Amino acid sequence: MLYARVITKPLMISASALVAQNASSMVMLGGFIGYSTKGEVDVFRTMNTTSAWIDFL
User: Fold this and answer.
1) pLDDT averaged over consecutive 10-residue blocks of the chain (57 residues)?
2) How far is residue 14's CA from residue 43's CA, in Å, rounded to a whole number?
């Protein structure tokens, strides 16, 4: 997680970014995805989620 705020006389800029795996505990997409190929063992990987916002005041 990254958070930044810049305060100047006429303007305040706030921004945040989040990159997560299995982010279901933060009420975002999360869990595992299963991949299968015929004749091979199934593989499960976590879902990757990205979120960002910026605010100008």
Assistant:
1) 94 94 80 85 87 94
2) 39
**H helix or E strand, kind and range, residue 13:** strand 12-21
Contact call for residues 46 and 5 (beta carbons, < 8 A): no
Place of tokens 């995805």: 33
Query: Tokens 């933060």 appear where?
Result: 26
In the numeric block, the tokens 């990254």 are attached to 2
Q: State the Cα–Cα distance between residues 43 and 27, nearest whole angstrom.
A: 25
Say what the pTM is. 0.65
Q: The tokens of 39 are what? A: 């004749």
Read off the tokens for 19. 């990159």
